[in-house]
């Protein structure tokens, strides 16, 4: 455990590192950040300038309710990811904050996942910046020291599902019209190894194999049966259920819960932390391919024009994404390795 703590403090797991420093007796206002330098602790007040991330802090309980607020579908664009990262950092550094409930302010949608337009028809520099921001959110959420509960009040495909998977506990509104899952293959793209690992850690190998290969999206009832979510409640009771559940998590002393969480998630986090640049390079190489761009364009157009729910690309589009494309992809070999 001493080695784990040392690594944390050396900045291998930035979010948890900051908290372990401040929670283990630092009563003042100085903490170590991930690079070991000191930071002033900010006081309350987290509203993002554009209100795309709404934060309601309950000072009495130390629980922050964070609502994604980018209609129509809370797609995870570069600006939203950037704002979210700032908010998460502030909450992480607030010594009064112990828990985070993540939900959506947009009716019927938790998050539609990564913004398709950030992955289409852009220069490689943009893809690179975008992917770094996606990585950053995963590192901050999956490595968060806060007790983190997802109150999933709508559909949650792909990157939206990943956000929920980063939580410690997932409660979903029991509406049969909502779906959740990592559906990347249906778009002709491949979920990176750390998406796969996050799913694997939650639902186990066999369910991961089936879900990821098929790009399956599940109803709330199916998701519960696979342990993709932990509990279903009627929509009207979602926030009260999340708040009540948070009470259970906050009964545990913070340091004990944080060290335990770190033990369980550390190796998965390190999987990405140890190769962030290579992962970005692989993403850029993959997403900028003509065949992948065509597939994404087709998918985005079908969403826009027909206003349909998830469906696979047409057979003509599928032909462009041959198995050879994937076999030669560094993403493929990354998945093979991990
Ligand atoms: C190697 C790469 C690895 C990448 C890893 C992760 C990838 C991802 O996360 S990719 C994103 C995958 N997301 C999806 O497949 C979800 C797509 N969206 C939907 O299925 C539906 O929109 C949804 C069920 C979320 C909501 O349905 P509706 O309420 O019926 O809304 P609409 O479908 O009418 O959509 C409204 C509006 O939003 C646009 N939209 C939807 N999703 C996205 C998105 N992910 N990014 C950008 N824009 C999105 C949709 O086109 C509509 O636009 P307009 O027609 O202009 O109104």
TrEMBL record:
Domain of life: Eukaryota
Subcellular location: Mitochondrion matrix
Gene3D superfamilies: 2-enoyl-CoA Hydratase, Chain A, domain 1, 6.10.250.170
Keyword Acetylation: yes
Catalytically driven reaction(s): (3Z)-decenoyl-CoA = (2E)-decenoyl-CoA; (3Z)-hexenoyl-CoA = (2E)-hexenoyl-CoA; (3Z)-dodecenoyl-CoA = (2E)-dodecenoyl-CoA; (2E)-tetradecenoyl-CoA = (3Z)-tetradecenoyl-CoA
Pathway the protein acts in: Lipid metabolism; fatty acid beta-oxidation
Single Gene Ontology MF annotation: delta(3)-delta(2)-enoyl-CoA isomerase activity
Database matches in InterPro entries: ClpP/crotonase-like_dom_sf (IPR029045), Enoyl-CoA_hyd/isom_CS (IPR018376), Enoyl-CoA_hydra/iso (IPR001753)
Membrane spanning stretches: none
Function: Key enzyme of fatty acid beta-oxidation. Able to isomerize both 3-cis (3Z) and 3-trans (3E) double bonds into the 2-trans (2E) form in a range of enoyl-CoA species, with a preference for (3Z)-enoyl-CoAs over (3E)-enoyl-CoAs. The catalytic efficiency of this enzyme is not affected by the fatty acyl chain length.
Protein name (Swiss-Prot/TrEMBL): Enoyl-CoA delta isomerase 1, mitochondrial
């Amino acid at each position: 455990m001493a080695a784990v703590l040392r690594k944390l403090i050396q900045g291998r797991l930035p979010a948890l590192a900051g908290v372990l420093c401040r929670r283990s007796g630092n009563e003042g206002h100085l903490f170590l950040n991930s690079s070991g330098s000191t930071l002033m602790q900010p006081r309350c007040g987290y509203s993002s300038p554009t209100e795309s991330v709404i934060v309601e802090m309950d000072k009495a309980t130390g629980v922050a309710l964070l609502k994604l607020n980018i209609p129509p579908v809370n797609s995870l664009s570069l600006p939203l990811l950037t704002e979210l990262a700032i908010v998460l950092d502030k909450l992480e550094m607030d010594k009064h904050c112990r828990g985070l409930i993540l939900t959506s302010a947009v009716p019927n949608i938790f998050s539609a996942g990564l913004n398709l337009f950030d992955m289409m028809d852009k220069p490689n520099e943009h893809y690179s910046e975008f992917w770094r921001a996606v990585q950053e959110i995963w590192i901050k959420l999956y490595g968060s020291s806060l007790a983190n509960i997802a109150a999933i009040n709508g559909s949650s495909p792909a990157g939206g599902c990943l956000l929920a998977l980063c939580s410690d506990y997932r409660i979903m509104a029991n509406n049969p019209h909502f779906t959740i899952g990592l559906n990347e293959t249906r778009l002709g793209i491949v979920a990176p190894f750390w998406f796969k690992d996050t799913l694997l850690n939650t639902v186990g190998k066999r369910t991961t194999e089936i879900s990821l290969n098929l790009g399956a999206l599940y109803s709330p009832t199916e998701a519960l049966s696979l342990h993709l979510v932990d509990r279903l409640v009627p929509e009207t009771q979602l926030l009260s259920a999340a708040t009540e559940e948070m009470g259970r998590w906050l009964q545990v002393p913070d340091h004990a819960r944080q060290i335990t969480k770190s033990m369980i998630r550390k190796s998965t986090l390190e999987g990405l932390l140890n190769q962030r640049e290579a992962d970005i390079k692989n993403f850029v190489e993959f997403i900028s391919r003509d065949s992948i761009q065509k597939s994404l364009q087709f998918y985005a157009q079908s969403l826009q024009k027909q206003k349909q729910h998830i469906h696979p690309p047409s057979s003509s589009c599928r032909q462009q994404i041959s198995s050879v494309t994937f076999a030669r992809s560094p993403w493929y070999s990354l998945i093979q390795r991990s």
